[in-house]
Amino acid sequence: MEVKVVNKSGFDLPEYATVHSAGLDLRANIAEDVVVSPLNRVIVPTGLFLEIPVGFEAQVRPRSGLAIKHGITIINSPGTIDADYRGEVKVGLVNISNEEYTIKPGERIAQMVFAKHETIKWLDVELLSDTDRGEGGFGHTGK
């Protein structure tokens, strides 16, 4: 799949870190350090503008190392970029640790995964089919 991109950042286009990586690393397109205090949120620009093909979305996800080591994650994980959005890709980060974290210019702050999706049509009915699970919800199978 090809995705049109305008790169207004000072960095190379996102790349896959390994041959079988699902996500492309997004970099912070900032001129100076941004400090994220505990339990605070920031929106970090990437300098990227995308034209995603219809039927696909781009999902912005946390980087596992930032999340585990520093408590930096995506506030609305995964964030969805729709095919008709043409604005700059920005990443909403939150610090869920007890310590400040400093984002450096060009730092890899998130990853982006492209996924195919379906568009549905509702079929308004009076009853749904029965299943063994039925209405069993949160925790209904045990711990």
Commentary on this structure:
The structure is a single chain. This protein is mainly β and 143 residues long. 5% of the residues lie in helices and 38% in strands. The chain is built from 1 helix and 10 strands, in the order βββββαβββββ. It has a 4-stranded antiparallel β-sheet. The protein has a 4-stranded antiparallel β-sheet with strand order 2-10-5-7, with no helix packed on it. The protein is globular and about 55 Å long.
Q: What descriptors fit this protein?
A:
4-stranded antiparallel sheet, 1 helix, globular, Deoxyuridine 5'-Triphosphate Nucleotidohydrolase, Chain A, 38% strand, single chain, 143 residues, mainly beta, 10 strands
- Say what the CATH topology is: Deoxyuridine 5'-Triphosphate Nucleotidohydrolase, Chain A
State the CATH architecture: Distorted Sandwich
User: What is the β-strand count?
Assistant: 10
- Cα(first) to Cα(last) distance is 41 Å
Instruction: Tell me the CATH superfamily.
Output: Deoxyuridine triphosphatase (dUTPase)
Biggest sheet overview: 4 strands, antiparallel
Structural class based on helices, strands and sheet pairing: mainly beta
Order of helices and strands: EEEEEHEEEEE
What is the beta-strand fraction? 35-45%
**Cross-sheet strand order for the largest sheet:** 1-4-8-6
The 3D shape can be described as globular
Tell me, what is the CATH class? Mainly Beta
Number of continuous helical runs? 1
Give the mean pLDDT. Answer: 95
Uncertain segments are: none
Rg calc: 19 Å
Total number of domains: 1
